[in-house]
Write a structure and sequence with these properties.
The protein has 228 residues and is of the alpha+beta class. It has helices at residues 3-8, 36-42, 74-78, 119-126, 129-140, 160-163, 196-202; strands at 20-22, 26-31, 50-58, 61-69, 83-96, 99-111, 146-148, 154-158, 173-181, 184-191, 207-211, 218-220. The protein is 21% helix and 38% strand. The strands form three sheets. The chain has a six-stranded antiparallel beta sheet with strand order 3-4-5-6-8-7, with helices on both faces. A four-stranded antiparallel beta sheet has the order 9-10-2-11, covered by helices on one side.
């Protein structure tokens, strides 16, 4: 290292959030709050035990929250637990072949009724059964889109399923990066074709498309989508 380089070196850079350089020419925004009716009809309505499910995003994380009914489990009936709150925190870690990988970085369940001793919260710490059951209820109703990978607690989202629904763009899009923030999910991608058919098919209430300069690099922290 040259002496001049040494003087320019800032040790604080080692502690800063790493940035990823993305060469993309489109940003597609998925408006999560407008998906409530779709989630209700396509996932919640298909599972009698899944009472509610909300999907939100904040600072690089996607959250699944809701209420799950437990009347079918004998031990729940024994201790008087009819339903539980759950919250699953997922962090996008990579996108390969238009399949997004979300790592489960947090999971909590607790009784819907306030109690001095929350048996559900305690039991969930020693037995992951509830975690598997809630995740299975969400994933099984969208098998063409959601799946658990070979890695422990990683969810794969097959985005090709949605792209293939629009023949004019199928096979012409490379999703490079995914950012979750501000109640939305942002997809940075490259495509040699116009993406308007995506909005025409799914609707502007769910998707927004922005064109990015072809020769520009976007340096973004994992969660700073608002700075794009």
């Amino acid at each position: 290292m040259l002496l001049t380089d040494l003087f320019r070196f800032n040790p604080l850079n080692l502690l800063l959030t790493p940035k990823t350089v993305v060469k993309s020419n489109y940003r597609v925004t998925l408006l999560l709050k407008n998906l409530r009716s779709v989630i209700k009809s396509e996932i919640i309505a298909k599972d009698p035990d899944l009472e509610t499910l909300a999907v939100t995003s904040v600072r690089g994380e996607i959250h699944f929250t809701g209420i799950y009914r437990m009347n079918w489990l004998w031990i729940s009936r024994l201790v008087g637990v009819s339903a539980v709150h759950y919250r699953v925190r997922l962090k996008p870690v990579s996108v390969r072949d238009n399949k997004a990988h979300l790592r489960i970085i947090g999971y909590r369940i607790w009784d819907t009724k306030p109690r001095k001793f929350d048996f559900v919260r305690w039991f969930a710490k020693i037995d992951p059964f509830h975690k598997k059951k809630v995740l299975a209820s969400i994933i099984k109703n969208a098998p063409k889109v959601l799946s658990l990978t070979g890695l422990q607690w990683e969810v794969q989202v097959n985005l090709n399923y949605f792209l293939d629904l629009v023949p004019s763009i199928a096979g012409k899009i490379e999703i490079q990066y995914l950012v979750a923030d501000n109640e939305d999910v942002y997809f940075l991608l490259r495509s040699g074709t116009i993406l308007k058919p995506l909005v025409d098919f799914f609707g502007p209430e769910y998707l927004r498309i922005d064109f990015l300069e072809e020769d520009s690099d976007l340096s973004i922290p994992l969660w700073e989508a608002s700075n794009l």
